[in-house]
Amino acid sequence: MRMVDLIEKKRDGHELTTEEINFIIKGYTEGKIPDYQVSAFTMAVVFRGMTERERADFTMAMVESGDQIDLSQIEGIKVDKHSTGGVGDTTTLVLGPLVASVGVPVAKMSGRGLGHTGGTIDKLESVNGFHVEIDNKEFIDLVNKNKIAVIGQSGNLTPADKKLYALRDVTGTVESIPLIASSIMSKKIAAGADAIVLDVKTGAGAFMKTLDDSRELAKAMVRIGNNVGRRTMAVISDMSQPLGYAIGNALEVKEAIDTLKGEGPEDLTELCLTLGSHMVYLAEKAKSLQEARAMLENAIKDGSALEKMKVFLSSQGGDASVVDDPSKLPQAKYIIDLEAKEDGYVSEIVADEIGTAAMLLGAGRATKESEIDLAVGLVLRKKIGDQVKKGEPLVTIYSNFEDVSEVKEKLLQNIKISTTKVEPPILIHEEIT
Ligand code: URA
Ligand code: CA
């Protein structure tokens, strides 16, 4: 087989065979096919697309390019949740203990990553003593015992995707539904889940800015999952403004605790109940989505979700007393309100720019080497549709430096106020199975 023939075949709009796709992925992972040929190939995919069969094959070829996590020693159906980006997305911190409290095994492998705030592991490390450096046996034992554990990323998962994503990034070939969908799904499948719930964000703060694009991506991922034998569904949810109020590491842990107590932001609570219901249903712990939702609502009401958070934190070395006393979380030195400059209704909160403001405070990583300040971040005091009076706080800034004028300016530029009444955005647009 020659790579040049496969590039031409795709360029001319033909479907590649399974063997041809395996040849490309294997050859690229092993360094036998050079970057320039693979970049020509990905550009051909950008223009020509891939059939449903090609997408499934492409995904599995990437899964098989490296290690796959074996979760077979964990009892029950393992359901993983994946969110496609977003700002201040606290859902993972809430959903883990919430679904675990009704018996769904949560075996989470997580990373740190770059972004507006840290990853799930960074956030959890704002709890004193909490650590994810556990070995595989302890990880599996903890999930069997408590139904929940988080382990740091290890092993060599989907090396083909790592190489390919880096190449796409510098060759203008990220924007392709088949390439994005197979990239995301390969990582989830290699991580060992039996079933997958996808939270595909849409809007200004999301990877996909329009509902049409988000729907197409969601459908593509759901098809790939189901075609390779993992039950998969997707929820398309709003990211035109940040989810919940808090954007920051310790601040989001506190927000997650509030939500598990039933005192969280309305949108975060609703999204967690929706995603959680699908997880419980796919794990076959409930016969219907309604039953699943009732179980989760009850776990919040009777305190079992909160109790599960304590067990989870303490079983990985964390000081679980933060759950009852969040003032034990890292605290910022300065707490400064940003006040509204005029009367009106909040009409826009540009999510990614608000995320950048949190980064200016030190809440996230710009490069792999950057240090995160766990204490700092933002708490929105108003969301889209809320009425606001001049002088009322719009955002509370948690900072470890006193001069936050740059942050304030960025926030003011990106929180728009209108004189006419504004409807809040729809939170959940569609569910795709
Ligand atoms: N996120 C991924 O993991 N892969 C893509 O291709 C795009 C976004
Ligand atoms: Ca949040």
UniProtKB/TrEMBL annotation:
Listed PROSITE patterns: THYMID_PHOSPHORYLASE (PS00647)
Coiled coil: 282-309
GO annotation (BP), single: pyrimidine nucleobase metabolic process
Keywords attached to this entry: Coiled coil, Glycosyltransferase, Metal-binding, Potassium, Transferase
Pyrimidine nucleoside phosphorylase C-terminal domain segment(s): 345-418
SMART domains assigned to the protein according to its UniProt record, in alphabetical order: PYNP_C
Signal peptide residue numbers: none
Catalytic reaction equation(s): uridine + phosphate = alpha-D-ribose 1-phosphate + uracil; 2'-deoxyuridine + phosphate = 2-deoxy-alpha-D-ribose 1-phosphate + uracil; thymidine + phosphate = 2-deoxy-alpha-D-ribose 1-phosphate + thymine
Cofactor entry: K(+)
GO MF term list: 1,4-alpha-oligoglucan phosphorylase activity; deoxyuridine phosphorylase activity; metal ion binding; thymidine phosphorylase activity; uridine phosphorylase activity
Enzyme class, broadest EC rank: transferase
GO CC terms, sorted: cytosol
Superkingdom of the organism of origin: Bacteria
EC number of this enzyme: 2.4.2.2
Alphabetized InterPro entries for the sequence: Glycosyl_Trfase_fam3, Glycosyl_Trfase_fam3_N_dom, Glycosyl_Trfase_fam3_N_dom_sf, Nuc_phospho_transferase, PYNP-like_C_sf, PYNP_C, Pyrmidine_PPas_bac/euk, Pyrmidine_PPase_CS
PANTHER family per the UniProt record, alphabetical: THYMIDINE PHOSPHORYLASE (PTHR10515)
Function: Catalyzes phosphorolysis of the pyrimidine nucleosides uridine, thymidine and 2'-deoxyuridine with the formation of the corresponding pyrimidine base and ribose-1-phosphate.
Subunit structure: Homodimer.
Similarity remark: Belongs to the thymidine/pyrimidine-nucleoside phosphorylase family.
Name listed for the protein in its UniProt record: Pyrimidine-nucleoside phosphorylase
Taxonomic path: Bacteria, Bacillati, Bacillota, Bacilli, Bacillales
